[in-house]
Amino acid sequence: MIIGFEDAFTDIQSEYISLCLEYVNNDVDEVFAYIYQTRSMKMFNAFFKKDGKILSAGQLGTEEASDEFLEVGRDDISKIVDVCDKYEHKCPNELKLVYNVKTKKFDAELGYEDYSEKEKVTPFEVFLNWFRAEKAKCSKS
Question: Which domain of life is it from (predicted)?
Fold first, then answer.
């Protein structure tokens, strides 16, 4: 790992978690942020766990606030690319970030394949499947 890359990359991930927490006024139990980027496509979305329920960003804010939140997250994707370019590190196409507010546990799953071309699935479908899977987990508990 190139010196400085890990810190810079971790800082960007932290910025995304901070953006999500700011959006919900720190009033959630868990944050799930999804970032997808290729040369031709950029997507950001998030959902949250609150009081044992999985809620979309739209359920926790006005339409205007939700649109602005998603736009800021999408625009910030360029920071990920810039850091990877600066340190000459391979840039992930996909990031799934999970943050537990109470325990402060952070987890990141990075993907380096452009599945949208290979598997003919959209990033939104992947995000929606993740949302549904987490919702199903909450329903069972």
Answer: Bacteria
What does the pLDDT look like over 11-56, one tens digit per residue? 999 999 999 999 999 999 999 999 999 988 899 999 999 999 999 9
Helix (H, G, I), strand (E, B) or coil at 12: helix
Q: What CA–CA distance (Å, rounded) separates 133 from 138?
A: 9
Token output for 13: 């991930």
**Residue range 51-72, pLDDT digits in tens:** 999 999 999 999 999 999 999 9
CATH match of 5-140 with 1.20.120.450: no
Which residues share a beta bridge with 55?
A: 48
34 near 96, Cβ under 8 Å?
yes
